[in-house]
Amino acid sequence: MTTAIPSAAELDDRDPLRAYTDRFVAGSEVAAYLDGNSLGRPLTVTGERFASFLAHDWGNRLIRSWDEQWMDLPLRLGDRIGFSTLGAAAGQTVVADSTTVMLYKLMRAGIDANPGRTEIVLDDDNFPTDRYIAQGIAAERGLTIRWISPDTARGVTEAQVREATGPNTALVVLSHVSYRSGYLADMEGITRAVHEAGALVLWDLCHSAGVIPTRLDAWGVDIAVGCTYKYLNGGPGSPAFGYVAERLQARLTQPIWGWMGAGDVFAMGGEFAPAVGMRRYISGTPPVVGMLAMQDMLDLIDEAGIDAIRRKSFELTDYAFALVDEYLAPLGVVTATPREHQFRGSHVTISHPSFKAVTARLWKDDVIPDFRNPDGIRLGLSPLSTTFAEVRAAVEAIAGALPHSR
Questions:
Q1: CB under 8 A, 24+ apart: contacts of 18-27
Q2: Does 229 participate in catalysis according to the annotation?
Q3: Residue 317 reports pLDDT greater than 50
Q4: Where is the signal peptide (predicted)?
């Protein structure tokens, strides 16, 4: 006997976080938005923040705002991200460059902290940028990459990491949540395994920051990088954050020496002397405009609580699975995301040979998931902005767009 799927209206009515969805900009050209794992929706209050910034901080205070607030903004905002979402004490997180640049800087720093070790370990299903940067650094430094080949419907396991690491391992680079399948790695267990091999680990938090409670300090994480335009709703191109455990900050030397990372920013000295603490991981002038919107989302995360956000993430993804099983599985759609709560993030990936064409049709009809080669649609569920009604509307639209003859 099958269990009846609750109605979306019923689930939305009893959702304790339902009121938060009304605080996001409601796009008039969007019927269902399930791509919050790629670009979070803006908050309505952010318009007021931008207006105040333009009129006062930039328009009236002008360059004085650097002394009054902007110079320390990367560190203050980093501490907020660390406290609200990462389980990181103050003084270990900074907002600086793009995700790509932060990955390069902190990968290089982690590798160079282990001289004599010749291998970088990462998985061949990791996000392309992570893989490309590792390949570039390996070419620069004459290192070898040891690849882990995980089950693409699951992800990298502790056992695989133990098998791949050893006395030659300098750095292990892994994603906390797989960008493709949504698999949630065992950060604590894998970090412990890497340390037992005498290496450092860098975690990519792009698909977990703001939606999955993490405990970077408690789990002994060394280095982490994450973007802010997904579940932190910082807007397109908003800068990434980097985390370096306090015990490692003086040991790691990042390779892009810019004036903003110097101990005395305005000394204009002849040689670079790095700042103490996380400022040393800043290179150029901080992208202040790109740091505005995420402050409103951090306010919302603090108000709702990261644990409550995670609970709704489970409920949304459970509902997506139920709808996929009911409406899409009979049409040949396969789920590619683990169903167990402890092994999944906040997006559900489904597969079908027709999904590239289906996605194009959905976008024209204002239903917005995203497509990942070769045949996957990701249903990205951002708990504070996504309703159960949107999930149902999207799944029904996919069903309607699929060929019904098999």
A1: 18/387, 20/300, 20/304, 20/384, 20/385, 21/384, 21/385, 21/386, 21/387, 23/300, 24/384, 24/385
A2: yes
A3: yes
A4: none
